[in-house]
Amino acid sequence: MSVYIFVTILLCGLVTWLSRVVPFAVIKNLTVPQWLINFLSFVPIAIMTAIFVESLLTYHAGHWPGFDLENIYASIPAILAGVLTKSLLAVVITGVIAMALLRLVGWAA
């Protein structure tokens, strides 16, 4: 059983690695039009916004989404860190610390 799990992990890692490396290898030899580069420049912000908004809302079948106050409170200092530093690392570290502090003082669920 453990060999099966190990092989599964290795194959999943290989597929993940290939899906990240192959596009760069293919595009390296192609000329990409400027309009496509401009379009693709919006993809990271769109993905981050979707992840961010999804983490701030709670979903209940048949009802409007509610707010996850724990995540909203932790996101406030993270947003400020992003505005001030323009660093993704600073945003992540600030968000993790903010959530840890919220849980430490008992304001989080």
Structure description:
The protein has 109 residues and is mostly helical. The protein has two domains: 1-30; 41-109, no CATH class. Helix content is 76%, strand content 4%. It has five helices and two strands. A two-stranded antiparallel ribbon has the order 1-2. Strand 1 (57-58) and strand 2 form a beta hairpin.
Secondary structure layout plus pairing:
Layout: H1 2-28, H2 34-40, H3 43-56, E1 57-58, E2 66-67, H4 69-85, H5 88-105
Antiparallel strand pairs: 1-2
Helix pairs in contact: 4-5
Task: Based on the model shown, name its key terms.
5 helices; two-stranded antiparallel sheet; 109 residues; 4% strand; extended; 2 domains; 76% helix; mainly alpha
Average per-residue pLDDT, rounded, comes to 89
Strand order of the largest sheet: 1-2
In helices, the fraction of residues equals: over 70%
Strand content: under 5%
Name the structural class: mainly alpha
Q: Report low-confidence residues grouped into runs of 5 or more.
A: none
| Rg on CA atoms, Å | 20 Å
Taken together, the total number of domains comes to 2
What string gives the helices and strands in order? HHHEEHH
Give the CA-based shape: extended
Structure at a glance:
The protein is mainly alpha-helical and 109 residues long. Helices cover 76% and strands 4% of the residues.
